């Protein structure tokens, strides 16, 4: 009698089919029913089964398994981290050792090359063994059926689909069997084996042979030895029970040796090779692949802040999903190769100069961002913090209201202190004068726009509630940092000396709203309620203090805004990637005005004219001691030593807030722009003091110098004479003080 006939007879004779199915003892037995008309197997809910198959994808083989996304530095080789739910990378079978191919077949389905997806002999053998043992001691699922189950699991989009793919019922077995037969008609055995190897679970979050080879042996699948292959193949049946990474390898060794014996029985290896291999101990070289930003390598901990900025950028991109949840799922399952803009050399340089001037462990944060003009590529993000969630050893909170109640965010934090996240940032002081100057130039005003700047000036703007500098009639009356600033100034000396009363007059002439709009055009966003209110169309015309930097911003935004001047007026959005490649080898695309372009394409626009940008740069050269090409800087400036430090053409701006609660410097060459700040992120009223103002200046200057060492010097292009204007013949004279 044929096996199927004996099986059918046994079921008929005993009359125990229903109890056996309910107990789950030989659920695999019903697979035999797929070789008969469906009507012959009653009472199993086959109508529901048919409906399930009607709703399946047209081709199961097209279901993509989740794959790990790999994130690299700008060289495309240095790994920053991975993102995954299930660590997996697809490996073509040509890149997989023949040892593991044969070991999997021997372990899971010795008749794989003989059946059509359902193994009738295997079903009969399992039924007899399970019925005799009174429990499930053998399974009847073929390798193809297992692939179907795993592919349905990986392709599930809803909880009900996951349950349908994994539920332990006879109906699921029938579903798998029917689909396995269909798969065998459409795919070759080699294709099925390749797909199986890439979806099988080996334990330790390793899905697929690539991840398994990497995690257990730190090697590629093509390099797996016979002993290693048998070890991995043995894991598929029960990854936890046969885990070789445990303290006791007895079960893992026995399972491995079973696989080796099966390979010998099938003629894949000789008995002699089997005997020799079984004597080898299991030798592991465990690798724990990093997952998410918090898992960056300890020696490169500072990369975590850049990684976090990249992740936030990804979650904002419509190209990767309709909402942040979909985008994160795509990042963790999409199998992308992501090459970021992070330059490890520049990052190390920036981190070195930051921590030399303000060591890790201080409540005061000193941070720096470096970007590339003309592309917006973020090259470095350094801050004197350790990227970590562990705050157990952190210092006391510096806010008196929170002191003793919660820990401070130093030295450990994951807060996006440098930008690219949801923190509002810090007031940036006089670095904001760039927005007033560029707005004025963009409106047609000339560099030779002269004002007499007294030490204190009564502006047309009214002081806000609680705003410092209120004077007669409720007007806002700002003053300069030094009496030596009093006198006549054009844009060169007004900017170089950071003359507040000059810039308030310039702002009045062009309109405070124009300065606010220019800041927005150059990439600033308003994150606090008060900034959003003040920047609104109805209020921005009266926001006189805007030019003195009372709004919050981040180093990332400021570096990018100043980089626009270095790029002759071309503004580029901050971009953390240079390439994003999908598993099929094609670039990830986005829609730009109805046209598909790579997501990693720089997003630039000519925001102001070249002449406006060059004129602003000429004034900013006064600050650094480099000197203007077309105007007079007035004999001194706020950071005259920068040119000597950088030793190449450089422009920039210092900035301090009231009581020096924060100190800033933003500087740029033609090649790089950098912004550094110093403040207490936990308590903005915890003043850094004037004595610390040099730290952001030196940090930027020496970062630029060292990052550009050995590279050709690029010169700034002077502005045209058309934008200069003429110096007035009669300028107001400085008022002499009366003698007592």
Automatic annotation (TrEMBL):
Descriptive protein name: Carboxypeptidase
Aminoacyl-tRNA synthetase listed as a keyword: no
Reactions this protein catalyses: [GlcNAc-(1->4)-Mur2Ac(oyl-L-Ala-gamma-D-Glu-L-Lys-D-Ala-D-Ala)](n)-di-trans,octa-cis-undecaprenyl diphosphate + beta-D-GlcNAc-(1->4)-Mur2Ac(oyl-L-Ala-gamma-D-Glu-L-Lys-D-Ala-D-Ala)-di-trans,octa-cis-undecaprenyl diphosphate = [GlcNAc-(1->4)-Mur2Ac(oyl-L-Ala-gamma-D-Glu-L-Lys-D-Ala-D-Ala)](n+1)-di-trans,octa-cis-undecaprenyl diphosphate + di-trans,octa-cis-undecaprenyl diphosphate + H(+); Preferential cleavage: (Ac)2-L-Lys-D-Ala-|-D-Ala. Also transpeptidation of peptidyl-alanyl moieties that are N-acyl substituents of D-alanine
Keywords per UniProt: Carboxypeptidase, Cell shape, Cell wall biogenesis/degradation, Glycosyltransferase, Hydrolase, Membrane, Multifunctional enzyme, Peptidoglycan synthesis, Protease, Transferase, Transmembrane, Transmembrane helix
Glycosyl transferase family domain location: 79-263
Residues that span the membrane, as ranges: 20-39
InterPro entries in the cross-refs: Beta-lactam/transpept-like, Glyco_trans_51, Glycosyltr_51/Transpeptidase, Lysozyme-like_dom_sf, PBP_transglycosylase, PCN-bd_Tpept
Record GO biological process: cell wall organization; peptidoglycan biosynthetic process; proteolysis; regulation of cell shape
Family recorded in the similarity comment: In the C-terminal section; belongs to the transpeptidase family. In the N-terminal section; belongs to the glycosyltransferase 51 family.
Region (Disordered): 713-740
Keyword set includes Repeat: no
A GO molecular-function descriptor: serine-type D-Ala-D-Ala carboxypeptidase activity
Residue span, Penicillin-binding protein transpeptidase domain: 369-671
One term under GO cellular component: outer membrane-bounded periplasmic space
Xref: Pfam families: Transgly (PF00912), Transpeptidase (PF00905)
